[in-house]
Design goal:
Subcellular location: Membrane
Number of helices: 5
Shape: flat
Mean pLDDT: 83
Number of strands: 83
InterPro entries: CD80_C2-set, Ig-like_dom, Ig-like_dom_sf, Ig-like_fold, Ig/MHC_CS, Ig_C1-set, Ig_sub, Immune_Resp_Modulators
Protein name: Ig-like domain-containing protein
Structural class: mainly beta
Strand content: over 45%
Distance between the termini: 127 Å
Number of domains: 8
CATH superfamily of the largest domain: Immunoglobulins
Keywords: Disulfide bond, Immunoglobulin domain, Membrane
Radius of gyration: 50 Å
Membrane topology: Single-pass membrane protein
Length: 1008
């Protein structure tokens, strides 16, 4: 700093400004005295200034002073239990009988802690009606702690007996709650952890027949419900309603210390201590590590994770050199302080809290064959740090215990510890002595072990030892894993010292279902033929003992554990030699089945807009399993989840489900992760999913762009349908590529190109669909061969997806379709007739074809529609050249007497760019039925063979489809009373045939 900085403080900086409540207005029933009372509280120091003001209806303000009309009470402050002060100020006056004006009174308060005065108003006061009830401010704690019951009180004065109370809350997630008071008879039946309102107090008011009441609301707060809470109390009586709001200042959740603390042996020569604090709110927390000797370490800033209920977790770790703990008085202290706590909390640790106490094995007794030296050896392992104390004790048969020390009789070895592969230590403690020839007494030796991690010493005993017979073989404890995992091979070892060559080994098991098993060692020649998944015992090692002609051996038992056989297993190893038998038992601590979780997280859409994530973990044992869902981008927050465990035999399955706000998936980096940890697992395992993953189920399906017939100077619409996507933040843009060019030009909404805004619509399965559109008027000169591209982007797509129209073929209709002459067959009454008209040089989507009948007498044209009399065929269009098609329209009918009144049939073709074109049959000749010639029969059969599919057009539209793969997926449009379709589809529209009355009259004689 270049110069000194400073801060200056005065009473104006104090954080205790006064709070003011509503003015209580009371009129004495026995007189005309009116008393106004205003409560002021939570201020400090006692430097309050209070002023009363009378405000007229014309806005004039007059300071009220003590005089013949007004009496102002002296303010006397007192402590309010929070070290701050409170007081009541009052104004009294006599009601004027000749005054009917409405007036307003104001209590104005000044204090050094206030930047400007505060005030409370009575509102316009009708002096002749001062008995309206008064609702006071809601009282209760303004700091809430999650899990600790809160009770709020709302009091009202001068109430009628019919007063009703309604507590109104809007929770942090927007959920509204309205809580009415419970009837008195149900006060004892309050449901736990719910909002409960009761009439807490009722007493007579100073005004006759009126009451003072107090209503209370009780509940247990939570972060999710009450983080952004709004709360009020509404009172109603005689059609009048008054409401008071409550302002919550602080909402806390106290940190929970997760027992036990964590201890880890680090390399080289360090121990790490760690604590976990969970479920606190807000996030900020102070954690400090210190020690009572030497320099305290610098505390690392902890990292936080956020839980589903908005509370936070943190883990704090600190390393110390192991040599510090060799001083048994060395202490490590960790303390934490959070806003929710009244005072700091802490934990203290010393070497006595370390979780690595020593384990001790049976004492091995060996006598040297060449001398009378006896050596006792005791193995001690799995301890840390290296603060072991070993003592040998000789115990006589009379119970006398003598500490063994190094002297002429006993030699005690120095214990030298070494790492045992688990970061802990092990050592061998030994005692040697000369066997006394004149002693025949039995004695017992005890190895006593002390360590700071032990609450009391542990020991191993030789048992009563016959000194004259020390060559008896010794069986050591069975070694092997004490935690088994189903499906993973287990090998147990049983070692024995000072054995004869005839020693035999028998492994004895009693399986969980009670099945006994005795397993003898396989002969050496069969070691390589071990049957899989069976109990297999082999002589694993044989070597000479220190005693002549004796051996040290090791036998092993191997098998693959299963849950049914080994859940309640008992196991031992029995060794026999020279008629002596010794047996050691093995205690299984844990049998585990590792959980299986091969499937990915599955997602499902809910009607609420949330996404349900589900995950199944199968076939694990035992039942307890930890599952945590988290979601986030850079830092993860814990998500609320539910688990359902089912049992299958001895194993269990769990179905876990969590719900995620669907809007979160709009961020492509948002990841949902499920993690699980089971006793059988060394570390946590997890699966995760985001919109970028291949297993994400709602990637947009983007259809090819159907290309309509492109006609020069005619408005055209290109569409690209996008469906089955979630969330709805899909984008699409259009690009244009010129013919014989590789450069792409973006198309923006403007005069030439219209690009409607995408409007995704929700579907029944809760996914979205939309159509990207481009409207423009093509030109033969500029758009022939141009390629239009729709580029679609969505968070679930790794890269943008493009759909292309291909090079556009723009057609300019400057010619007229050609209609060939109609060949009219011979028409005979009663025979079926087909009239054909071939049309060429046209684009089907630009023409409309229909048939007319011309009457002989009137000359009027009658449109023919499909009916029982007349049938039109569907035109099959065939490509004529690159730009045009041809096809044949057919009219089929059975000739009758009515046909004789028709002069000719006409095929009319309407074209988009010209006047209608017609071809007629010319006057038709209808003859009576007679025997047909052979040629006529052949023509009739040919006509029957060519009979087309019927097309019903009564109040419906039917499509005529181009027989060409280049013209599919085309769009339809409507014009006038007919339906027109772009290239690829043609619709014929017909009118029903109307019969003249004259025709009907003509038919009557024939029918008669």
């Amino acid at each position: 700093m270049d110069k000194q900085e400073s801060r200056e403080f005065s009473v104006k900086d104090f954080p205790w400004p006064p709070q003011i409540e509503d003015i209580e207005v009371v009129k004495s029933p026995s007189s005309s005295t009116v008393k106004l009372t205003c409560k002021i509280h939570s201020f400090f120091p006692d430097l309050l200034t209070v002023k009363w003001i009378e405000k007229k209806t014309d806005g004039q303000e007059v300071d009220v002073i003590n005089n013949n009309k007004y009496v102002i009470s002296n303010t006397s402050s007192k402590a309010d239990g929070k070290h701050t002060l409170s007081c009541n100020v009052s104004l009294s006056f006599e009601k004027s009988h000749d005054s009917e004006d409405k007036v307003e009174y104001v209590c104005r308060v000044e204090h050094p802690c206030l930047k400007s005065p505060i005030q409370s108003r009575t509102g316009l006061l009708q002096l002749e009606d001062l008995h309206s009830f008064i609702v006071h401010n809601i009282q209760g704690p303004q700091t809430w702690v999650v899990g600790e019951k809160v009770t709020l009180y709302c009091a009202a004065s001068n109430c009628k007996k019919d007063v009703s109370v309604l507590w109104i809350l809007k929770e942090g997630d927007g959920t509204p709650q309205e809580v009415s008071e419970l009837p008195p008879e149900k006060h004892e039946m309050i449901p736990p952890a719910e909002y409960t309102a009761v009439r807490d107090n009722t007493e007579k008011s100073d005004i006759e027949e009126l009451l003072n009441i107090t209503s209370s609301l009780s509940f247990v707060p939570s972060i999710t419900k009450h983080r952004n809470l709004t709360l009020s109390c509404k009172l109603s009586s005689e059609g009048k309603t008054k409401e008071k709001s409550f302002q919550l200042k602080h909402l806390y959740a106290k940190p929970q210390f997760l027992e036990p603390a964590e201890f880890t042996i680090c390399s080289p020569g360090e121990v790490q201590l760690g604590i976990n604090l969970r479920k606190f709110y807000p996030e900020t927390i102070d954690i400090t590590w210190s020690c009572n000797k030497g320099k305290s370490p610098d505390t690392k800033i902890p990292e936080y994770t956020v839980n589903y209920d908005k509370t936070c977790n943190t883990k704090s770790e600190q390393r110390f050199h192991v040599d510090l703990f060799k001083d048994l008085d060395f202490r490590v202290n960790v303390s934490w302080k959070h806003e929710s706590m009244d005072k700091q909390e802490s934990r203290e640790f010393s070497v006595k809290d370390f979780p690595w106490p020593p384990q001790i094995e049976d004492i091995e007794v060996v006598k040297t064959p060449s001398s009378s030296t006896v050596k006792l050896t005791c193995k001690i392992h799995s301890f840390f740090p290296d603060l072991l104390t070993v003592k040998w004790i000789e115990k006589k048969t009379d119970g006398q215990e003598v500490d063994v020390i190094n002297n002429n009789k006993y030699v005690i070895s120095n214990t030298s510890s070494k790492a045992d592969g688990k970061h802990t230590l092990s050592c061998n403690a030994s005692l040697s002595f000369e066997k006394s020839h004149d002693s025949e007494d039995k004695v017992e030796y005890v190895c006593l072990v002390e360590h700071p991690c032990l609450k009391s010493p542990i020991q191993s005993r030789t048992g009563l030892l016959q000194l004259e017979d020390l060559h008896s073989f010794i069986v050591h404890n069975i070694q092997g894993p004490q935690t088994w995992v189903v499906g993973e091979k287990v090998t147990l070892y049983c070692a024995a010292s000072n054995c004869k060559k005839d020693v035999s080994v028998l492994w004895i098991l009693k399986e969980g279902d009670g099945t006994p098993q005795e397993v003898s060692e396989l002969p050496p020649e069969k070691h390589e033929t071990i049957p899989p998944a069976e109990y297999t015992a082999v002589r694993d090692k044989t070597e000479k003992s220190d005693i002549e002609e004796l051996l040290n051996i090791t036998s092993s038992l191997s098998f693959v554990p299963s849950i049914t056989k080994h859940r309640n297993l008992t196991l031992s190893c029995k060794l026999s030699s020279e008629g002596k038998t010794k047996e050691k038992s093995f205690q299984l601590k844990h049998l585990h089945v590792k959980p299986k979780a091969s499937d990915p997280i599955k997602l499902a859409l809910l009607d609420s807009g949330e996404v349900a994530g589900t995950f199944n973990i199968l076939e694990f044992y035992p039942k307890d399993i930890q599952i945590i869902w988290t979601g986030g981008v850079n830092s993860a927050s814990e998500l609320r989840s539910t688990e359902q465990i089912t049992e299958h035999g001895y194993t269990h399955d769990v179905h876990s489900e969590c719900r995620i706000d669907g809007l979160l998936f709009k961020n492509p980096d948002y990841t949902v992760k499920v993690s699980w940890k089971h006793e059988s697992m060394d570390s946590w395992e997890s699966r995760q999913i985001s919109v970028r993953d291949k297993d994400y189920p709602w990637r947009p399906e983007i259809q090819n762009i159907p290309v309509p017939g492109i006609i020069s100077n005619r408005p055209t619409r290109l569409e690209c349908k996008i469906s089955n996507f979630f969330p709805d933040n899909v984008t699409a843009k259009w690009l244009r590529k010129e013919k014989d060019s590789k450069e792409l030009f973006p198309l923006n909404h403007g005069e030439k190109y219209k690009v409607p805004v995408l409007k995704p619509e929700k579907q029944s399965e809760n996914t979205f669909t939309c159509t990207a559109s481009l409207n423009f008027t093509p030109s033969l000169e500029t758009d022939q061969g141009a390629d239009f591209i729709c580029v679609v982007e969505h968070p679930s797509l790794g890269s943008a997806v493009e759909k292309k129209t291909g090079a556009l073929q723009v057609t300019d209709f400057l010619w007229r379709p050609r209609i060939e002459e109609i060949i009219t067959p011979h028409i005979v009454i009663g025979r079926k007739v087909t009239i054909k008209c071939k049309i060429s040089d046209c684009i089907p989507g630009a023409v409309t074809v229909y048939w007319l009948a011309k009457e002989k007498r009137s000359g009027r044209l009658i449109p023919l529609s499909n009916s029982e009399t007349y049938i039109t065929s569907q035109i099959t269009w065939k490509r004529e050249n690159q730009n045009s098609f041809y096809g044949t329209s057919r009219l089929t009918f059975t000739s009758s007497l009515q046909t004789a009144d028709i002069l000719e049939f006409i095929c009319r073709v309407e074209h988009a760019e010209c006047q209608p074109i017609e071809k007629g049959t010319g006057p038709i000749n209808v003859t009576q039925n007679h025997m047909r010639s052979e040629a006529e029969n052949q023509n009739h059969m040919r006509s029957e063979a060519e009979n087309p599919n019927h097309l019903n057009v009564h109040s419906r539209k039917r499509s005529l489809t181009v027989n060409d793969d280049d013209y599919d997926d085309l769009n339809a449009g409507k014009k006038g009373n007919r339906y027109q379709y772009p290239i690829g589809i043609l619709t014929l529209s017909w009118w029903e045939l109307r019969l003249d009355v004259d025709w009907i009259l003509c038919l009557l004689p024939i029918l008669a």
